[in-house]
Amino acid sequence: MNRLAGKVAMITGAGRGIGAAIALAFAREGAAVALAELDLDTANATAERIASEVSGARAMAVKTDVTQSASVVEALKQTEATFGPLDVLVNNAGINVFCDPLTMTDEDWKRCFSVDLDGVWNGCCAVLPGMVGRGRGSIVNIASTHAFKIIPGCFPYPVAKHGVIGLTRALGIEYSPNNVRVNAIAPGYIEMQLTLDWWDSQADPKAARQATLDLQPMKRIGQPQEVAMTAVFLASDEALFINASCITVDGGRSALYHD
Q1: Which helix or strand (DSSP H or E) is residue 70 part of?
Q2: Is 130 exposed, middle or buried (0-12, 13-18, 19+ CB in 10 A)?
Q3: Which domains does the chain have, with CATH numbers?
Q4: Tens-place pLDDT, residues 71-124
Q5: Candidate list 157, 175, 189, 257, residue with the active-site label
Q6: What span, in angstroms and rounded, lies between the C-alpha atoms of 62 and 74?
Q7: Which residues, other chains included, contact 233 with Cβ-Cβ below 8 Å and sequence gap of 6+?
Q8: Is the peptide bond prior to 152 cis by the omega test (within 30 degrees of 0)?
Q9: Average confidence score pLDDT of the chain
Q10: 99 bridge partner residues
Q11: Exposure on the CB side of residue 54, measured as CA atoms within 13 A
């Protein structure tokens, strides 16, 4: 506990899933958290949950569209007006866009990149001036194992996630003299609503679930809180010499040569 005591954090896409788990974990570790979320209802619900589960928690929901740089800047202004200067940004907001490359529309491409890559850049661009000026800060970008492993039928999502890793490394090196660290986390299969919905959409949901589990070296998939605690570590002063790096959270799946 208190690994993030005194820190102020903003987490995008924090209304549910991994983002909500990160917000809750940060609050439990003592951070003041702003839940920057397009769906304000889910953000408010998560903020209320944090308040009910964490004694003395400081949490607020801020309506944010990460595809719009002005919206992210406004979210940052509201966060800092309430809690003070930002110490940590977690760029978590993302969407799945899976298409056939030759039938994909321009709108599919733009929709994917506007959230999954431009949204990360908009967050970084908003917070970096303040972090550089104060000489401290940590940015954690939620990438994916799609950033270095390709699954057919998932285009252009992995292209955007490859870009997130490149952005992480480039910004991490660029601003390391200013004591600003930029890192990424690459989750594999994580049990979220999207995962459950996909299993349920199959002809035999139980068999689909088991097939996924059979592919995993640990014979289970990850939980959102397991990604969240990795984010806690990267945001904390325990990781002061970790920069321009990516931590994979996939139970070893991406290290497996073949099934």
Answers
A1: helix 69-83
A2: middle
A3: 8-190+223-252 (3.40.50.720)
A4: 999 999 999 999 999 999 999 999 999 999 999 999 999 999 999 999 999 999
A5: 157
A6: 9
A7: 239
A8: no
A9: 97
A10: 155
A11: 23
3-state secondary structure of 155: strand
DSSP lists the bridge partners of residue 35 as: 11, 61
- Rounded to whole angstroms, the Cα distance separating 65 from 146 reads 24
pLDDT given at position 194: 83
Q: Which residues pair with 11 in a beta bridge?
A: 35, 90
Amino acid at 249: V
What is the pairing mode between strands 98-99 and 155-156? antiparallel
Please report which residue ranges of 96-247 form alpha helices under DSSP H. 106-116, 118-134, 157-174, 193-201, 205-214, 224-235
Pairing, β 88-91 against β 8-12: parallel
Known catalytic residue: 257? no
* Residue corresponding to tokens 């400081």: 58
CA distance 191 to 21: 12
